[in-house]
């Protein structure tokens, strides 16, 4: 069953960057919309590809919509506040016996880690700070889930 994220479609189809950018202002919390707009500007200024920006924005928009109008991204300080969202991606084994949802869960985790690292290390700074110097706050130090899926590639293909 698809989750309802209000202003965002959840059909699984990739969204165009321009469509996602137009939806930033529809985020229910004004401060979150402003922060996400700044994140988009940062990615654009640093040469991120359109596909990368679209993927990152889509996840952050989903998360901000999930938080609703009363929860600000700046108030997130516990891993449970992120895990609650990530766990909405978990599917019943009957619906997803190969557990492909784990890849989505891990992708969303990676995006949210990147976003929060940007938020607390780069946002508001005039000069760019290399990402290698960014600190990862404790509440986003969440481990990826392991997948037991077999790779379609053999060792010689890699």
In short:
The protein has 158 residues and is mostly helical. It has helices at residues 17-23, 30-45, 50-67, 79-86, 101-121.
What does it look like?
The protein is mainly α and 158 residues long. It has one domain. It is 44% helix and 0% strand. The protein is built from 5 helices and no strands.
Gap from first CA to last CA: 35 Å
The residue fraction in helices comes out at 40-55%
- Structural class category: mainly alpha
Unreliable residue stretches:
1-5
Encode the helix/strand succession as letters. Answer: HHHHH
Based on CA atoms alone, the radius of gyration comes out at 16 Å
Number of DSSP-assigned strands: 0
Number of spatially distinct domains:
1
Rounded mean pLDDT score: 87
Number of helices: 5
Shape: globular
Main β-sheet description: none
Strand content: under 5%
Write the layout of secondary structure elements.
Layout: H1 17-23, H2 30-45, H3 50-67, H4 79-86, H5 101-121
Helix pairs in contact: 1-3, 2-3, 3-5
């Amino acid at each position: 069953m698809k989750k309802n994220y209000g202003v965002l479609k959840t059909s699984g189809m990739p969204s165009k960057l321009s469509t996602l950018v137009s939806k930033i202002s529809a985020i229910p919390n004004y401060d979150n919309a402003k922060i996400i707009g700044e994140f988009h500007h940062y990615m654009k200024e640093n040469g991120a590809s359109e596909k990368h920006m679209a993927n990152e924005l889509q996840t952050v928009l989903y998360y901000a919509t999930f938080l609703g109008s009363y929860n600000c991204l700046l108030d997130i300080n516990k891993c449970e506040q992120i895990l609650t969202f990530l766990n909405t991606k978990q599917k019943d084994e009957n619906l997803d016996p190969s557990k492909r949802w784990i890849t989505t869960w891990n992708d969303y985790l990676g995006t949210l880690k990147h976003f929060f690292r940007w938020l607390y290390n780069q946002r508001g700074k005039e000069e760019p700070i290399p990402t290698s110097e960014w600190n990862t706050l404790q509440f986003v130090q969440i481990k990826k889930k392991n997948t037991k899926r077999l790779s379609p590639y053999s060792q010689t293909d890699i």
